[in-house]
Structure formats: structure tokens, C-alpha cells
From TrEMBL:
Pfam families: MmgE_PrpD_C (PF19305), MmgE_PrpD_N (PF03972). This is 2-methylcitrate dehydratase. The lineage of its organism: Archaea, Methanobacteriati, Methanobacteriota, Stenosarchaea group, Halobacteria. Residues 261-433 form the MmgE/PrpD C-terminal domain. GO terms for molecular function: lyase activity. Residues 6-247 form the MmgE/PrpD N-terminal domain. PANTHER family: 2-METHYLCITRATE DEHYDRATASE (PTHR16943:SF8), 2-METHYLCITRATE DEHYDRATASE-RELATED (PTHR16943). It comes from Haloprofundus marisrubri. Belongs to the PrpD family. It comes from the Archaea. Transmembrane segments: none annotated.
Length: 448
């Protein structure tokens, strides 16, 4: 079974010395990916709405609001900065068979709490490792999607664990923090079903804010239901069902994927397949008559039409949750970046015509392969009476093909080039690569 005590005992027992060199390196890469994506999201319409709200409530505070010189309280900084990490839908993902949480949703909350106590880089990486482990274990052992709960239901628990770790909460306060967070902040799956709107990209930021607030309440002595998981009408009875987990020092970070394309997690291999096939066969995309995708159950359910039509696409929130749109624009443009989510691009006739030719079907054999660790996709393009076919089982960034530092730095350069010059970008990369020799304040000072 899992209890608040087991989470606290695991987190309190982990030290930086327990992390292997490979794990430390993986955690640094997760930090670089997260802050690079956040920089790319600065100035976007949705995140600016959140910035307006947060700034209106904060004249000053302990934590920097990334992308400005303004400061705010730790919960409000966690809200905005997590939204920046999450909004582009370019964040990392943990590929469990029945759930796909995004562990990078934890990073900004832990950074904010690290600012509050002037934490070292080693302390930051250790706390992020705790959060990744808790979120990965919950996603694997206690999926909640099919029960009607959103995956950020896990995030509020994992972010609480990471925030409590970096703030140095003692065991009783740690348990109270998890109890408060896991009792009060369970999110409904309706966020990602039917018509999709802006909240899809903001729900995890709200979870991060709630996590930090729960930890601060517990730090100041507020008690919470420490039997939240096993208690009567608790998390296991109401939210998840029975489950057991086994925490190890940050091992789950090695099972996390980085996205190559600005697109929903389950679309990555299919997009790679469409772009590769169109290029290899020298296909004129305007001549494509139909696109067919055989995929696994989760992809069909979430972005292929299983939780609502994915053919009515007019906004970014709808587009990055629609396999028909993503495959159509990938074929036409040969890439899927932020530019493919401009409103004018989304509504152009060529992509609107082609997306309506896309057929998405679940293949049980591909579902079995996904549950065994692949991300399979079989794509067929009908062009002038001919059918072109390609099959993929992964993509660059999948845990089987992890991104190297060079690849991640290339992604980082692409998301930050409009804001930072080469010298500033190099300082940020160097700070992350040597984070165990730096502190949180040095990292945050560069996120202006």
C-alpha cells in the first residue's frame, strides 16, 4: 500500500549522494528542457492572462516571475512559471500504460520553494528527483484517467513531495502537506474531453500552486488528513482504487520522454512517420487524398476522437489535442513547431481540408506494444491512387532514443532564440549543466 508516511519516508531518506551520475545528468537535462520551453512560452496570450492575475495580487514576494523582474509569493510564482513550462505542449512525459503524466509540471513549483530557502543546486535536483519518482510511480501503479480524473491529480501529490523536500519539512509536517494536497485538489478529466479550451494547458499550473500552498500550510503547523490514501472515503476508495508502489531514488526519470515536436505526447511517433514518409517518397502534400493512422488505445482515446471529435479545430488548444490536425499540418509543412499553432495557420483551407481526410484507428497489437514500452504508429498516405506506408516504434526523445545534450541544446536554442542572445543562452546552459555547483538563485536570475 501507499501512505503519506511512505512518501515522506522515501523523500526524507533520499540525498544527492544517493543519485548516480547518470541520474544526476538526466535530471539536469529535464531542467534544461523545462526552462527552455518556459522561455519559449513567454509572451503567449494564455500565459499573459495568468501573469496579469498573479501580478495584480503581488507587489513583491520571495520568488521571481520568469520573464520579468517582478516577484510574487511561492504559490503564485508556481502558478505562472508552471504554466510557462506547460503551455506550449512541448513538455516531457512519463509513459505509463494507463496514464501519461508530465513530470516537468513539478519543476517550477520546486524552484519557487528553492528560492524561498536559498537552496543549492544539489538540493534542487534531489527534490526534482523525488517529484519525478512519485509522479512516475503513481502514474504507473494508480492510473486515474479511466475513472474520470485528470492526470494532474497525480501532479499535486508529486509537486507537494518535491516542494516539501526542498523546504526541509519534518516527517509529520510532510505527511500533513501530502494529506492536504491529495484530499483537496483532485481534478476532473473533463479538462481533456469534448471541446478543448485554454484550461487544458493551465490545469497543471493550478495543481502546482495548490501543492506549494499545501506545503506552506503544513510547514506553519496546519494538520491534514494523513490517512488520505487508505482512510475511509479516501483516495484509494474514491479516486484510484487499490495500488502499491515502490519508490527508488529518482529512477523513474530514466523512463521520461522529451518531445521532438510541439505536439501532444501520443502524436510524436505518428508525426515523425508522416514527415519522414512524405520526404522519402517526395510526396506533394497537396496531392494527398487521405491519411490513415493505426495507433494504440491511449492515442485513439485522447487525441484521436475517443473523448470527443477532433475534427473541429479552430484554436491552439484544440489543434495540439487533435491527431487529424497534427498529422495534416505535419504533412503540409514538414514540421510541427509553435508556428503550426498560429490561429491563421490553423484556419487555412489546405490544413482544414486535409485534416478531414485523416482516419485514426486503434490496433490492439499496437496497444500491446505501447504497454511494453514502444510508441508505435503505422501511417498510410493515399496519393494519386497509390498507397505509401511507414511504421515507427519510437522517435528521437523516446526513452529508447533519449535526447543527447546536443539535441536538447538544439531544442533549447530554438525555443529561446527570440528572447536571449547567444551569450545569455550559453550562460543558462552552463548553469544547468553545473547545477550541482550552483544554487537556485543563480538559475532564476537568468530567467528574465
Amino acid at each position: 500500500m501507499t501512505t503519506t508516511g511512505e512518501i515522506a519516508d522515501f523523500a526524507l531518506d533520499v540525498s544527492y549522494d544517493d543519485l548516480s551520475e547518470e541520474t544526476r545528468d538526466a535530471l539536469k537535462r529535464r531542467v534544461l528542457d523545462s526552462v527552455g520551453i518556459a522561455v519559449g512560452a513567454m509572451g503567449s496570450e494564455t500565459t499573459e492572462k495568468i501573469r496579469t492575475t498573479v501580478e495584480s495580487m503581488n507587489d513583491d514576494g520571495a520568488c521571481r516571475l520568469w520573464g520579468s523582474d517582478r516577484r510574487a509569493s511561492p504559490p503564485d510564482a508556481a502558478m505562472l512559471n508552471t504554466a510557462l513550462v506547460r503551455y506550449l505542449d512541448y513538455m516531457d512525459s512519463y509513459l505509463a500504460p494507463g496514464e501519461t503524466p508530465h513530470p516537468s509540471d513539478n519543476v517550477a513549483a520546486i524552484v519557487a520553494c528553492g528560492e524561498l530557502v536559498d537552496a543549492s543546486g544539489e538540493e534542487l535536483l534531489t527534490a526534482i528527483g523525488v517529484a519525478y519518482e512519485v509522479q512516475g510511480e503513481l502514474g504507473y501503479a494508480a492510473p486515474v484517467r479511466d475513472k474520470g480524473w485528470d492526470h494532474v491529480t497525480h501532479t499535486v501529490v508529486s509537486a507537494t513531495a518535491g516542494a516539501a523536500t526542498i523546504l526541509g519539512l519534518e516527517r509529520d509536517a510532510f505527511r500533513n502537506a501530502v494529506g492536504i494536497a491529495a484530499t483537496a485538489h483532485n481534478a476532473l478529466r473533463v479538462t481533456r474531453t469534448g471541446g478543448i479550451n485554454e484550461w487544458k494547458g493551465v490545469a497543471s499550473a493550478n495543481a502546482a500552486r495548490n501543492a506549494v500552498y499545501s506545503v506552506l500550510l503544513a510547514r506553519d503547523g496546519l494538520e491534514g488528513p494523513v490517512d488520505v490514501f487508505e482512510g475511509q472515503k479516501g483516495w484509494k476508495q474514491v479516486v484510484s482504487g487499490e495500488f502499491e508502489v515502490e519508490y527508488t531514488p529518482a529512477e523513474r526519470v530514466h523512463d521520461v520522454m522529451a518531445k521532438k515536436y510541439v505536439a501532444e505526447t501520443y502524436a510524436q511517433s505518428a508525426i515523425e512517420a508522416v514527415i519522414e514518409l512524405t520526404a522519402e517518397e517526395d510526396i506533394d502534400p497537396t496531392a494527398i487524398d487521405a491519411i490513415r493512422l493505426d495507433t494504440f488505445a491511449g492515442a485513439k482515446l485522447i487525441i484521436g476522437g475517443g473523448e470527443g471529435s477532433r475534427y473541429e479545430v479552430e484554436t491552439k488548444a484544440q489543434a495540439d489535442h487533435s491527431l487529424p490536425y497534427m498529422l495534416a499540418v505535419a504533412a503540409l509543412d514538414g514540421e510541427v513547431t509553435e508556428a503550426q499553432y498560429d490561429t491563421d495557420r490553423i484556419r487555412e483551407d489546405d490544413v482544414q481540408r486535409l485534416l478531414r481526410t485523416v482516419e485514426v484507428e486503434e490496433d490492439p497489437a499496437l496497444t500491446e506494444r505501447f504497454e511494453a514500452g514502444e510508441m508505435p504508429a503505422v501511417v498510410e498516405l493515399d496519393v494519386d491512387g497509390e498507397t505509401h506506408r511507414i511504421e515507427k516504434d519510437a522517435f528521437p526523445g523516446h526513452p529508447r532514443e533519449s535526447m543527447t545534450w546536443d539535441q536538447l541544446e538544439g531544442k533549447f536554442e530554438a525555443t529561446t532564440r527570440d528572447r536571449y542572445d547567444d551569450a545569455h543562452r550559453d550562460r543558462l546552459v552552463d548553469t544547468v549543466r553545473t547545477l550541482d555547483e550552483s544554487d537556485v538563485s543563480e538559475l532564476v536570475a537568468l530567467l528574465d
